[in-house]
Amino acid sequence: MQNKNIKKYFENKASNNLQINLHNSRRWGNILIGTKAKTFQLGFNLESPYFWVIDSTAKIDESKLERPKVRYNNKESSSFHSLNKTFTFSVDSINSIESNLYLDNIEIGGIKIKNITIASAIKGIPIEYIPTTGKDVYCPIDGEFGLAPLLNDKNKIPTTLNLLTKYLSKPIVTIYTINDLGADIDNQNIGTLTVGEENTENCIPPYKYIELAESNQWSVEINKIELSGNKQLKNTKSKMFRIVEDGFYMYMPKEDLDNLAGILNAEIPQEIGGFYKLNITECKKPKPTITFILGGPKIGSKHSTNPKEIITTTITLAPYQYIAPTEYGNECLLLFVTNEEMNYDNKYINMGEVFLRNRCVSLNWVNGRMGFADGKKPTKIVKKEEELN
Predict the structure, then answer these.
(1) Both 213 and 352 in a single domain?
(2) Is 382 within the bounds of a domain?
(3) Which of 282, 342, 350, 366 has the highest count of CB atoms within 10 angstroms of its CB?
(4) Does pTM surpass 0.90?
(5) Contact, 294 vs 262, CB < 8 A?
(6) Ranges of the chain whose pLDDT falls below 70
(7) Is 114 helix (H, G, I), strand (E, B) or coil?
(8) What pLDDT does residue 3 have?
(9) Which of 380, 386, 315, 388 is nearest to 179 (CA)?
Protein backbone atom coordinates (compact mmCIF):
# COMPACT_ATOMS: atom_id res chain seq x y z
CA MET A 1 0.00 0.00 0.00
CA GLN A 2 1.28 3.45 -0.86
CA ASN A 3 2.38 5.50 2.14
CA LYS A 4 -0.40 7.95 3.19
CA ASN A 5 2.11 10.72 3.78
CA ILE A 6 3.85 10.28 0.46
CA LYS A 7 2.63 13.61 -0.99
CA LYS A 8 4.46 15.74 1.53
CA TYR A 9 7.76 14.15 0.51
CA PHE A 10 7.31 14.75 -3.20
CA GLU A 11 7.85 17.84 -5.26
CA ASN A 12 8.05 17.89 -9.07
CA LYS A 13 7.19 14.17 -9.19
CA ALA A 14 7.05 14.28 -13.00
CA SER A 15 10.77 15.04 -13.31
CA ASN A 16 12.20 11.92 -11.66
CA ASN A 17 14.99 11.41 -14.19
CA LEU A 18 18.55 12.07 -13.06
CA GLN A 19 21.27 12.71 -15.64
CA ILE A 20 24.02 10.09 -15.62
CA ASN A 21 27.61 11.00 -16.44
CA LEU A 22 30.56 8.67 -16.95
CA HIS A 23 34.10 8.72 -15.61
CA ASN A 24 36.43 5.76 -16.17
CA SER A 25 33.40 3.50 -16.71
CA ARG A 26 31.89 4.71 -13.41
CA ARG A 27 28.41 6.19 -13.61
CA TRP A 28 27.67 9.21 -11.44
CA GLY A 29 25.10 11.95 -10.99
CA ASN A 30 24.22 15.02 -8.92
CA ILE A 31 22.38 14.61 -5.62
CA LEU A 32 21.51 17.55 -3.37
CA ILE A 33 22.06 17.08 0.37
CA GLY A 34 21.06 19.26 3.33
CA THR A 35 19.27 22.56 3.83
CA LYS A 36 20.95 25.26 1.79
CA ALA A 37 21.67 22.18 -0.26
CA LYS A 38 25.12 21.29 -1.56
CA THR A 39 25.53 19.37 -4.79
CA PHE A 40 27.39 16.08 -4.41
CA GLN A 41 28.59 14.10 -7.43
CA LEU A 42 27.92 10.53 -6.34
CA GLY A 43 28.79 7.28 -8.05
CA PHE A 44 26.06 4.73 -8.73
CA ASN A 45 27.72 1.55 -7.49
CA LEU A 46 25.71 -1.52 -8.52
CA GLU A 47 27.69 -3.75 -6.16
CA SER A 48 27.38 -1.67 -2.98
CA PRO A 49 24.10 -0.98 -1.15
CA TYR A 50 25.23 2.05 0.86
CA PHE A 51 24.80 5.83 0.62
CA TRP A 52 27.98 7.57 1.75
CA VAL A 53 29.77 10.88 1.38
CA ILE A 54 33.10 12.22 2.64
CA ASP A 55 32.96 13.89 6.04
CA SER A 56 34.40 17.36 6.54
CA THR A 57 36.74 15.96 9.20
CA ALA A 58 38.15 13.13 7.07
CA LYS A 59 41.92 13.33 6.74
CA ILE A 60 42.61 12.74 3.07
CA ASP A 61 45.31 14.05 0.76
CA GLU A 62 43.71 16.18 -1.94
CA SER A 63 46.90 17.97 -2.98
CA LYS A 64 47.11 16.26 -6.37
CA LEU A 65 43.43 16.58 -7.25
CA GLU A 66 42.34 19.13 -9.84
CA ARG A 67 38.90 19.26 -8.21
CA PRO A 68 38.61 19.26 -4.39
CA LYS A 69 36.05 16.86 -3.00
CA VAL A 70 32.70 18.18 -1.86
CA ARG A 71 32.38 17.17 1.78
CA TYR A 72 29.48 16.79 4.16
CA ASN A 73 29.57 19.20 7.09
CA ASN A 74 26.59 18.72 9.37
CA LYS A 75 27.05 22.23 10.82
CA GLU A 76 26.18 23.69 7.40
CA SER A 77 22.75 22.03 7.27
CA SER A 78 19.94 23.07 9.59
CA SER A 79 18.01 19.88 8.73
CA PHE A 80 20.64 17.41 9.96
CA HIS A 81 20.15 15.13 12.96
CA SER A 82 22.93 13.03 14.46
CA LEU A 83 22.17 9.38 15.14
CA ASN A 84 25.13 9.24 17.54
CA LYS A 85 26.26 6.07 15.85
CA THR A 86 29.27 4.95 13.87
CA PHE A 87 29.08 2.46 11.04
CA THR A 88 31.80 0.44 9.30
CA PHE A 89 30.98 -1.24 6.00
CA SER A 90 32.66 -2.68 2.92
CA VAL A 91 32.25 -1.07 -0.50
CA ASP A 92 34.31 -3.67 -2.37
CA SER A 93 36.71 -6.54 -1.67
CA ILE A 94 39.44 -4.12 -0.55
CA ASN A 95 37.96 -1.03 1.09
CA SER A 96 36.11 -0.74 4.42
CA ILE A 97 34.73 2.68 5.30
CA GLU A 98 34.37 4.04 8.82
CA SER A 99 31.60 6.61 9.10
CA ASN A 100 29.33 8.66 11.35
CA LEU A 101 25.59 8.38 10.75
CA TYR A 102 23.30 11.36 10.22
CA LEU A 103 19.77 12.06 9.09
CA ASP A 104 19.33 14.82 6.52
CA ASN A 105 17.26 15.88 3.54
CA ILE A 106 18.19 15.01 -0.05
CA GLU A 107 16.89 15.66 -3.54
CA ILE A 108 17.35 13.08 -6.28
CA GLY A 109 15.87 13.31 -9.75
CA GLY A 110 13.39 15.99 -8.70
CA ILE A 111 12.20 14.01 -5.67
CA LYS A 112 12.78 15.62 -2.27
CA ILE A 113 13.14 13.25 0.66
CA LYS A 114 13.33 14.17 4.34
CA ASN A 115 15.38 12.49 7.04
CA ILE A 116 17.29 9.88 5.08
CA THR A 117 20.24 8.09 6.69
CA ILE A 118 23.66 9.17 5.38
CA ALA A 119 27.00 7.58 6.20
CA SER A 120 29.57 10.37 6.43
CA ALA A 121 32.95 8.69 5.84
CA ILE A 122 35.92 9.58 8.05
CA LYS A 123 38.30 6.75 7.07
CA GLY A 124 38.72 4.18 4.32
CA ILE A 125 37.65 6.25 1.30
CA PRO A 126 38.53 4.18 -1.81
CA ILE A 127 41.83 5.25 -3.36
CA GLU A 128 40.30 5.58 -6.84
CA TYR A 129 38.30 8.54 -5.55
CA ILE A 130 41.25 10.28 -3.86
CA PRO A 131 44.35 9.12 -5.76
CA THR A 132 47.61 10.24 -4.19
CA THR A 133 49.88 9.14 -7.02
CA GLY A 134 48.77 11.75 -9.53
CA LYS A 135 46.71 9.19 -11.42
CA ASP A 136 43.15 10.21 -12.27
CA VAL A 137 43.49 13.65 -10.70
CA TYR A 138 40.25 14.68 -12.43
CA CYS A 139 38.07 12.13 -10.60
CA PRO A 140 34.73 13.94 -10.11
CA ILE A 141 33.15 11.55 -7.60
CA ASP A 142 32.46 12.61 -3.97
CA GLY A 143 30.96 9.38 -2.62
CA GLU A 144 28.42 6.77 -3.62
CA PHE A 145 24.71 6.27 -3.90
CA GLY A 146 24.83 2.49 -3.85
CA LEU A 147 22.21 0.66 -5.91
CA ALA A 148 22.84 -2.96 -4.94
CA PRO A 149 19.58 -4.65 -3.83
CA LEU A 150 20.73 -5.88 -0.43
CA LEU A 151 18.05 -6.79 2.10
CA ASN A 152 17.99 -4.96 5.40
CA ASP A 153 20.09 -6.27 8.25
CA LYS A 154 18.85 -5.26 11.72
CA ASN A 155 22.43 -4.77 12.87
CA LYS A 156 23.25 -2.30 10.11
CA ILE A 157 21.81 0.88 8.65
CA PRO A 158 19.13 0.43 5.99
CA THR A 159 20.54 0.25 2.48
CA THR A 160 20.09 3.03 -0.08
CA LEU A 161 17.24 1.43 -1.98
CA ASN A 162 15.35 0.33 1.11
CA LEU A 163 15.62 3.87 2.47
CA LEU A 164 13.83 5.10 -0.67
CA THR A 165 10.99 2.56 -0.67
CA LYS A 166 8.34 4.48 1.27
CA TYR A 167 8.92 7.67 -0.73
CA LEU A 168 8.40 6.21 -4.20
CA SER A 169 5.30 5.25 -6.15
CA LYS A 170 7.11 2.03 -7.11
CA PRO A 171 10.28 0.47 -5.64
CA ILE A 172 12.04 0.64 -9.00
CA VAL A 173 15.16 2.29 -10.38
CA THR A 174 15.94 2.18 -14.09
CA ILE A 175 19.25 2.79 -15.83
CA TYR A 176 19.18 3.93 -19.45
CA THR A 177 22.32 4.38 -21.55
CA ILE A 178 22.43 6.23 -24.87
CA ASN A 179 23.90 4.49 -27.90
CA ASP A 180 26.39 7.04 -29.24
CA LEU A 181 29.03 7.32 -26.54
CA GLY A 182 32.49 8.41 -27.54
CA ALA A 183 35.84 7.07 -26.42
CA ASP A 184 36.61 9.78 -23.87
CA ILE A 185 37.34 8.91 -20.24
CA ASP A 186 34.76 11.49 -19.21
CA ASN A 187 31.36 11.64 -20.89
CA GLN A 188 28.55 13.96 -19.87
CA ASN A 189 24.89 12.96 -20.12
CA ILE A 190 25.29 9.32 -21.16
CA GLY A 191 21.79 8.43 -20.04
CA THR A 192 19.41 8.64 -17.11
CA LEU A 193 18.66 7.10 -13.75
CA THR A 194 14.88 6.98 -13.39
CA VAL A 195 13.72 6.80 -9.79
CA GLY A 196 10.39 5.24 -8.84
CA GLU A 197 9.36 3.80 -12.21
CA GLU A 198 10.39 2.34 -15.54
CA ASN A 199 11.80 4.60 -18.23
CA THR A 200 9.22 4.60 -21.02
CA GLU A 201 10.49 7.80 -22.61
CA ASN A 202 13.64 6.19 -23.99
CA CYS A 203 12.74 2.48 -24.01
CA ILE A 204 9.93 0.33 -25.40
CA PRO A 205 7.58 -1.31 -22.88
CA PRO A 206 6.66 -3.84 -21.68
CA TYR A 207 9.83 -4.62 -19.74
CA LYS A 208 10.89 -8.27 -19.57
CA TYR A 209 11.27 -9.18 -15.89
CA ILE A 210 13.02 -12.13 -14.29
CA GLU A 211 13.81 -12.95 -10.67
CA LEU A 212 17.15 -11.94 -9.22
CA ALA A 213 19.61 -14.75 -8.64
CA GLU A 214 21.17 -12.99 -5.64
CA SER A 215 20.05 -10.44 -3.09
CA ASN A 216 23.13 -8.23 -3.48
CA GLN A 217 23.81 -8.05 -7.23
CA TRP A 218 22.10 -6.99 -10.43
CA SER A 219 22.21 -10.61 -11.56
CA VAL A 220 19.85 -13.27 -12.88
CA GLU A 221 20.31 -16.95 -13.66
CA ILE A 222 21.33 -18.20 -17.09
CA ASN A 223 19.18 -21.08 -18.29
CA LYS A 224 21.08 -21.57 -21.55
CA ILE A 225 22.75 -19.68 -24.40
CA GLU A 226 21.56 -20.33 -27.95
CA LEU A 227 22.82 -19.18 -31.32
CA SER A 228 20.58 -18.98 -34.37
CA GLY A 229 21.02 -21.94 -36.68
CA ASN A 230 20.21 -24.48 -33.95
CA LYS A 231 23.52 -24.02 -32.17
CA GLN A 232 24.06 -23.80 -28.45
CA LEU A 233 26.94 -22.76 -26.22
CA LYS A 234 27.16 -25.82 -24.01
CA ASN A 235 28.69 -26.58 -20.61
CA THR A 236 29.28 -22.95 -19.78
CA LYS A 237 31.11 -22.08 -16.59
CA SER A 238 28.98 -19.01 -15.99
CA LYS A 239 25.65 -19.64 -14.28
CA MET A 240 24.60 -16.01 -13.85
CA PHE A 241 24.18 -12.93 -16.03
CA ARG A 242 25.26 -9.76 -14.22
CA ILE A 243 25.17 -6.01 -14.97
CA VAL A 244 28.40 -4.22 -14.02
CA GLU A 245 29.14 -0.50 -13.99
CA ASP A 246 32.94 -0.61 -14.21
CA GLY A 247 33.41 -2.48 -17.47
CA PHE A 248 33.26 -1.35 -21.10
CA TYR A 249 32.80 -4.68 -22.90
CA MET A 250 30.84 -7.87 -22.36
CA TYR A 251 32.84 -10.44 -20.39
CA MET A 252 32.87 -14.24 -20.24
CA PRO A 253 35.14 -16.94 -18.81
CA LYS A 254 37.97 -17.60 -21.27
CA GLU A 255 36.89 -21.20 -21.71
CA ASP A 256 33.37 -20.17 -22.72
CA LEU A 257 34.59 -17.35 -24.93
CA ASP A 258 37.01 -19.70 -26.70
CA ASN A 259 34.06 -21.99 -27.44
CA LEU A 260 32.01 -19.09 -28.78
CA ALA A 261 34.95 -17.93 -30.91
CA GLY A 262 35.18 -21.42 -32.38
CA ILE A 263 31.54 -21.29 -33.49
CA LEU A 264 32.06 -17.82 -35.00
CA ASN A 265 35.41 -18.72 -36.65
CA ALA A 266 37.16 -15.98 -34.68
CA GLU A 267 40.88 -16.06 -33.94
CA ILE A 268 41.62 -16.87 -30.30
CA PRO A 269 44.30 -14.56 -28.86
CA GLN A 270 47.29 -16.09 -27.13
CA GLU A 271 47.34 -13.55 -24.32
CA ILE A 272 44.55 -13.15 -21.77
CA GLY A 273 42.70 -9.92 -22.43
CA GLY A 274 43.51 -9.82 -26.14
CA PHE A 275 40.82 -9.19 -28.73
CA TYR A 276 39.09 -12.07 -30.49
CA LYS A 277 39.37 -11.15 -34.18
CA LEU A 278 37.75 -12.15 -37.44
CA ASN A 279 39.46 -11.67 -40.78
CA ILE A 280 37.75 -9.62 -43.45
CA THR A 281 36.33 -12.72 -45.17
CA GLU A 282 34.69 -13.85 -41.95
CA CYS A 283 33.48 -10.32 -41.27
CA LYS A 284 31.44 -10.40 -44.46
CA LYS A 285 29.78 -13.74 -43.72
CA PRO A 286 26.39 -13.82 -41.98
CA LYS A 287 26.76 -14.38 -38.26
CA PRO A 288 24.22 -15.81 -35.82
CA THR A 289 22.26 -13.98 -33.20
CA ILE A 290 23.15 -14.85 -29.61
CA THR A 291 20.22 -15.41 -27.27
CA PHE A 292 20.59 -15.54 -23.51
CA ILE A 293 17.68 -17.43 -21.99
CA LEU A 294 17.53 -16.07 -18.46
CA GLY A 295 15.84 -17.52 -15.41
CA GLY A 296 15.34 -20.99 -14.08
CA PRO A 297 15.52 -22.90 -10.82
CA LYS A 298 16.73 -20.32 -8.32
CA ILE A 299 20.09 -20.79 -6.64
CA GLY A 300 19.69 -21.95 -3.03
CA SER A 301 17.76 -24.59 -1.13
CA LYS A 302 14.78 -22.32 -0.47
CA HIS A 303 13.75 -22.30 -4.12
CA SER A 304 11.96 -24.95 -6.11
CA THR A 305 13.82 -26.85 -8.84
CA ASN A 306 10.68 -28.17 -10.49
CA PRO A 307 11.16 -27.51 -14.24
CA LYS A 308 7.43 -26.84 -14.59
CA GLU A 309 7.88 -23.77 -12.43
CA ILE A 310 10.71 -22.28 -14.47
CA ILE A 311 9.98 -18.79 -15.77
CA THR A 312 12.38 -17.41 -18.35
CA THR A 313 12.91 -14.39 -20.53
CA THR A 314 15.26 -13.81 -23.44
CA ILE A 315 17.85 -11.23 -24.38
CA THR A 316 19.04 -11.44 -27.99
CA LEU A 317 22.15 -9.81 -29.44
CA ALA A 318 22.22 -9.19 -33.17
CA PRO A 319 25.63 -9.58 -34.85
CA TYR A 320 26.20 -5.80 -34.95
CA GLN A 321 25.75 -5.72 -31.18
CA TYR A 322 28.64 -8.07 -30.46
CA ILE A 323 30.92 -7.65 -33.53
CA ALA A 324 32.52 -4.36 -34.63
CA PRO A 325 34.80 -3.45 -37.57
CA THR A 326 38.21 -2.00 -36.81
CA GLU A 327 39.26 1.48 -37.85
CA TYR A 328 40.71 0.41 -41.19
CA GLY A 329 37.98 -2.10 -42.00
CA ASN A 330 40.36 -4.98 -42.63
CA GLU A 331 39.12 -7.12 -39.75
CA CYS A 332 36.45 -7.28 -37.03
CA LEU A 333 36.55 -7.66 -33.27
CA LEU A 334 34.25 -9.49 -30.91
CA LEU A 335 32.94 -7.16 -28.22
CA PHE A 336 33.30 -9.99 -25.73
CA VAL A 337 36.46 -10.06 -23.61
CA THR A 338 37.57 -12.56 -20.97
CA ASN A 339 36.51 -12.20 -17.34
CA GLU A 340 40.14 -12.73 -16.47
CA GLU A 341 41.02 -9.35 -18.00
CA MET A 342 38.94 -7.59 -15.33
CA ASN A 343 39.38 -10.17 -12.55
CA TYR A 344 35.64 -10.83 -12.65
CA ASP A 345 34.30 -13.97 -11.02
CA ASN A 346 33.80 -16.68 -13.63
CA LYS A 347 30.42 -17.63 -12.22
CA TYR A 348 29.10 -14.59 -14.11
CA ILE A 349 28.79 -13.39 -17.66
CA ASN A 350 29.35 -9.69 -16.98
CA MET A 351 27.65 -7.05 -19.10
CA GLY A 352 29.26 -3.62 -19.30
CA GLU A 353 28.68 -0.47 -21.30
CA VAL A 354 28.54 -2.15 -24.73
CA PHE A 355 25.57 -4.24 -23.62
CA LEU A 356 23.84 -1.35 -21.85
CA ARG A 357 23.90 0.98 -24.85
CA ASN A 358 20.42 1.80 -26.13
CA ARG A 359 18.88 -0.36 -23.43
CA CYS A 360 17.03 0.08 -20.15
CA VAL A 361 17.60 -2.15 -17.17
CA SER A 362 15.24 -1.87 -14.20
CA LEU A 363 15.54 -3.21 -10.68
CA ASN A 364 12.57 -3.83 -8.41
CA TRP A 365 14.23 -4.39 -5.04
CA VAL A 366 11.04 -5.28 -3.17
CA ASN A 367 9.86 -7.99 -5.56
CA GLY A 368 13.45 -9.01 -6.27
CA ARG A 369 13.27 -8.77 -10.06
CA MET A 370 15.30 -7.26 -12.88
CA GLY A 371 13.71 -6.04 -16.11
CA PHE A 372 15.02 -5.32 -19.61
CA ALA A 373 13.71 -3.14 -22.43
CA ASP A 374 15.19 -2.10 -25.77
CA GLY A 375 15.81 1.56 -26.54
CA LYS A 376 13.65 3.41 -29.02
CA LYS A 377 16.61 4.55 -31.13
CA PRO A 378 18.54 2.14 -33.38
CA THR A 379 21.76 0.88 -31.85
CA LYS A 380 24.84 2.50 -33.34
CA ILE A 381 27.53 0.23 -34.76
CA VAL A 382 30.93 0.87 -33.20
CA LYS A 383 33.18 1.62 -36.16
CA LYS A 384 36.55 2.63 -34.78
CA GLU A 385 38.96 0.49 -32.88
CA GLU A 386 39.88 3.38 -30.59
CA GLU A 387 36.26 3.55 -29.47
CA LEU A 388 36.66 0.04 -28.09
CA ASN A 389 39.53 0.92 -25.80
Answers:
(1) yes
(2) no
(3) 350
(4) no
(5) no
(6) 1-15, 132-135, 151-157, 181-186, 297-310, 378-389
(7) strand
(8) 41
(9) 380
